[in-house]
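Many introductory courses stop at the sequence. We go one step further.
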Amino acid sequence: MRKPIYIRSLTADEAQTLQEGLRSSATFVVRRCQILLASARGQTARVIAETVGCDDQTVRNAVHAFNTTGLTARTPHAAFTTPQREPLRALLHRSPRTFGHPTSLWTLALAAQVAYAEGLTARPISGEAIRRALARLGVRWQRAKHWITSPDPAYIRKKNGVTG
């Protein structure tokens, strides 16, 4: 069994900020404030996790982050800073084949993998982080569409490589 972890004593300003965070429009901030306030009331990580609907390790991570960095632990960290977004855009204008992948189409997961391999991010990220970074650049990610067709009645059979 793990040793219980609790947040350090809250100052009046920190307690007020956490209470205000409960009314935030950002889900991450609301959940983080709920976790920290419950820990301040003396609840264990397991009880908080059951109440909030997350894993108890998530609670421990939140408490540890608060104990080391304070209220900055309430905000999510963007995978890409503003200066890193333009190199991401440039990377996506190149073919995945130039990075040794057997496809010519980017997927969000592939872009995340290559961004980490190329050193654009300090840690592996998800495809969702790529989508959010592109949204901040004003770019909408759309799945590639198969729009090339042929009037040949055997087109689909030939396209799929089943020739007779």
